[in-house]
Structure formats: structure tokens, C-alpha cells
Amino acid sequence: MVNIGNDWDAILAEEFKKDYYLKLRAFLANEYRTRVIYPNMYDIFNALRYTSFENCKAVIIGQDPYHGPGQAHGLCFSVQRGVEPPPSLKNIFKELSDDVGFVDPGHGELTYWAKQGVLMLNAVLTVREHQPNSHKGMGWEIFTDRVISELNKKTTPVVFLLWGANARQKARIITNPLHVKLETVHPSPLSAYAGFFGCRHFSRCNAILEKSGQTPIDWQLPE
User: Fold this and answer.
1) Active site includes 64?
2) Cis geometry, peptide bond prior to residue 222 (ω within 30 degrees of 0)
3) Is the peptide bond before 86 cis (omega within 30 degrees of 0)?
């Protein structure tokens, strides 16, 4: 059984028993046995592990994990220390710099945000090496929809940062008027200049949190 280690275990207990998830689990068992899959199987649920339901106050939604060696570790857009930040993450850092005076910490590991209450959730939580979207449509989307539908029930405002078409598909689940959806294009080099740069989502997120009496996110990553 999956053991996340916080309140998500009780919230998602029934989800892990559903037919679609049992089929997904069987598929993953074979994938991890026969192919190179990212992230490490023990890191699949790190987004939920680092950010409990109770503590979640912002959500960044990615597509699926990075598919190169040593990159993915269960948080969207984040890479492990010692790994060159990919282009999308570099563009996130550029916008952070312009928006809130962020200084590049020399790495791309974002657990510091997750521990402050930023759920760094990919829509699909696993991928084959060098094959983006290879686990699309296998059931993860149903699971992550459920996570977002649970967050939709929160009685404290949550800020959803939805970048790109894939993430914005999740907007339909966020129906509680208490929550705020900040939407723009994906930070990839293909689209960043079409609206991601200048979106000021990081300062806007903090303004919303402060207005609701919540502690803002310290976006500056430690070195």
C-alpha cells in the first residue's frame, strides 16, 4: 500500500482501492521491472509527501516528470541538486527574478517551496526515460483530478498557478469561489514570451495569500 505519511493517506485511501488505480499499479510494476522509469518509485508521491492537504495554500501543476537521468524526484519543474535546470525552470527563475527579485541559487531543487505549502503536482506522475508523455492516459490523470477536487473543498483560499494547456485543463475542477486560478502559457522556450514572462504570478500569489491572512511564500531558494 502507498504510505504518504500525512493527512493525504486518509483522504485518498479509497482512491488507492479503485479499479483504475489497481490497473495503473499493475502497469507501473511491469514498467519499473522492464524499463527505466522516472522518478524513482519511492519518489512518485513526493509532491503529496512534502505538502500536506492541511498545509497546502498554492498549487503549481506540471505535465509529467522530466525524462532524463537524475532529473525528476516527484515535484513538478524541480530537479535534483547537481543537475542542470531545464529550460522551463530557467524561465521560471527569470520571471521570479523580474517579479520578486529572485537570485539564482545555483540549483533547481524546489522542495523549499513544497515545504511552505506549494503543492508541486504533475498531472501524470511517472514517465519512461527519454519518452515524454509515455504514461499519459494510463490513469494518473484520474488520480490527480481527485487530488485537485479534494483541494477544491478547502475552506481556506488556495492559489492555483496553471501554466499551459495541460495544466489549464484542471481548471474545470476548481469551482469553489474561495480559490483563485492564475492562468498563463507554459514557461517552456516555445511559449514563455507569449505571456509567461511578465505574468507576475509569484507576487500575485503572495498578495492573495496575505489578503486572506496566510503567510506568503518565500520564493527565494536557499543555496
Assistant:
1) yes
2) no
3) no
Active-site hit among 7, 9, 19, 64 = 64
Cβ count near 33 (within 10 Å): 8
Question: With the CA atoms of 53, 119, 222 and 186 taken in that order, what torsion angle do they form, in degrees rounded to the nearest 10?
Answer: -170
184 secondary structure, DSSP code: E
Note the pTM of the prediction, 2 decimals.
Answer: 0.97
Look up residue 142 and give its amino acid: I
The cell for 175 is 469551482
Range 203-208, long-range pairs (CB < 8 A, 24+ positions): 203/99, 203/100, 205/58, 205/159, 205/161, 206/100, 208/157, 208/159, 208/180
The tens digit of pLDDT for each residue in 180-222 reads 999 999 999 999 999 999 999 999 999 999 999 999 999 999 9
Per the CB < 8 A criterion, the answer to whether 187 and 196 are in contact is: yes
| Nine cell digits for residue 28 | 507501473
Element (H, E) at 123: none
Asked whether 62 and 123 are in contact (CB, 8 A), the reply is yes
Neighbouring residues of 34: CB distance < 8 A, sequence distance ≥ 6: none
Task: List, for residues 35-45, the tens digit of each pLDDT value.
Answer: 999 999 999 99
Question: Tell me, what amino acid is at 200?
Answer: R
Alpha helices in 62-135 (DSSP H): 87-100, 111-115
CB distance 60 to 13 below 8 Å: no
